[in-house]
Amino acid sequence: MTIWLEEFTQRLCGNIMVYLFPVLFGYCSWELACGGSNMHSFKDLNAFGSDRAGALKSTCSETPVSVLQRACKTSLNCFCIIRDNSAKTMGLVSTSNSVFKGVDLHSRTNNTEHHTSEISVDQLIVRRGQPFILTLKLAQPFNPDLDQLTMTAETGNYPSETRGTMSRFGVPNKIPASASSKAVWKAELKKGSSPETGSLTLTIKPPADAPIGEYKLSAKHKEEKQVLANLSVLFNPWCSDDWVFQPVDAQRQEYVMNEHGVIYRGNNSQISPCQWDFAQFEENMVKICLKILDLSVKYKRDPAGDVSARCNPIYVGRIITNMIHNESTFGVLEGNWSGNYRGGMNPAYWSNSYTILKQWYDTYYKTVKYGQCWVFASVMCSVMRLLGIPCRVVTNFESAHDTDSSLTIDTYFTDCGRAKPSGDSVWNFHVWVEAWMRRPDIANNGKYDGWQVLDPTPQEKSEGMFCCGPAPVTAILNGDTHLKYDVSFVFAEVNADCVCWLVKKDGTMDKISTDNITVGQNISTKSISSNKRMNITDSYKQREGTEQERSVFRYALDRLKSEATGEGDTGGSGEKVLSGTSEMNTTDPVRTAETNKPSQLIIQFKEDSRPVNGGDVNLKLILSSESTVTRLLSVNISIQAMRYTGQPAGNIQTEVTEQKLLPGQDLSIPILVPFLTYHKYMIVSQSLNVSVIITDLQNKENIYLAETRIKLMDPPISITVLGEAVVGRELTAEVMFMNPVKETLRNCTLTLSGSGLFTGEIITNLPDLQPSNRIRVQFPMFPYRSGERSLMVDFDCSSFRDIKASCTVYVK
Asked: Transglutaminase-like domain spans which residues (predicted)?
């Protein structure tokens, strides 16, 4: 790796050569883990420091125990665990007198046909509802008219035909299935086989309702029974009988096969795309994702029932929403919105799912620190896509968190204009996933099939555990808040009203305004086959201001009130049937704007230019009035650092002035927020909140409130690839960044990642960067998978956190 420091004029001011000599460990099939706070894998290139590198070098030729003993000499007060990862797809071990002589699983061919070759071409990974082939070599001829080959497929620790976790089938198909059997597999002798020589090529088909998971496939001929293989079975969006069937190939390619994504953050007026590497086809992802299911509370309570229920994507989706966060034992990610990320990573650091999931798996299921909503959703999307459920990440801007199902969000301001913490909140944005599946559990006519909201961010409990969804998007659109699962909560996130209150010094409150438009704006996801943003707001809510939108809101609100009071009839279906809905009052006091202001004051904020983190923030407050007399106003301007959850993170500055507003004229008040004033707050915050409270000094009952959120742009960082990318051939990439502030940047680090390009993250410490100087870093990589890949870079230093860039690499 080569690093250059340059002045902005590009005159060479320093040349630093950094040579990295990583120790390449042998790739053995055993892993070592040191318990407590330190857990490592031999396959992690940077798992141990240089003091341990020599002790762990060339471990493949040694036994796991000897490696373990030597490695632990370098760790004090630790306990050790060995996990055997050497299980292969091929399970047949033949003896000289065995009737079974060999098996060919045709893994490469089968996996290609089943769209799993991106995961592996060595391990057999198939999709349910679709046949795969297997060639079995017997020691003697096989006569289909006289002989019987009985096969068994089983999954879980308690396989059962009645639960669908075991199936007995055969060639020829003379094995009767009982009436209570579920998920029956089938096998046929493929044309072109040579049974007279003992060579049987079989076509085996797992049913479209088989539980997903790891299976053991065995065969019995005459009196001998033999395990043939271990294989994995996934959901099949290519199969019309599967509940996750997606009929459009472009959507299957985007929502199942695409490893690259775009997550949208910022706020409604300043939407910032963030590249994300889902990396769902990286090494061991099948094991990782299935282990997530095995560690759920549902499995712990009823392992046989849980494995059986994995035939149902509705059930699997709910389990994953619960397991992604640490509210569940062995959860993948710990949420942290405090701004204090000691002991872990700032949630904004992450750029890919595999690093998180691999760390969780390699540390024997120790929760990874830390995540926030977009990280939870992105990791869940990776798991869902790997399992075969079409999935996409969705951002809701101005997202309400309604804790009491009132469809009202109350926000409070002090008389100096500062926002106060509240139980209810409106997040700048909130991110969840949508998964594509059928919903026959709530309608037999397919009305609620299609996209379902699943939210892995722990907010409220559902059926006793922190999970949310699947909630049909169609039900959210129609206000069917009584339907499963958690439709009412998601409906509020995109439809709630905002009521602003002024809290006076004596504790009394005045209602300033009611806003029925802001919540639920620009609901966004990545477009199919491009990185453009797709606005899907119309699939969630009726157009604001229309009678249809008001009608749906009243319908949903009345349902929620009825459920809260226990009124109405369930009609035997679990659905509340309201009485008198056609005679509802058309005047909704919750959604009526304030009308008690005798003379309207128009308040606007205007930015001189798009503010950049590292520069001063300049904007103007513009006041205008239709009054025919001069108005004397008290103007209280408050600047706060805000977390994206809508909660204040620090008071930056306050300014109070008296202003005269002349009739027929605009009043422009400049607002300046210097970088040196705000920068320490913005290291752990996402935006600035500028609020103004204006009091008419000639009539102090007239109080006006306005606010705006400012998302600061990150300073630019660039990443480019030099040369053509070919699998196995060295490729050079270059990163450049210029210090935009008048202070030295210290503790600079660069993190590089990208599935198919790096097997893990590459973290590099950089020298201090003087004001107006630029750093240029070149580094090598060796692509190991072809196709379109995303190269991600993250830059951190003393003044900035998680400045990101990415580029697309086409690998031949």
From this structure: 365-458
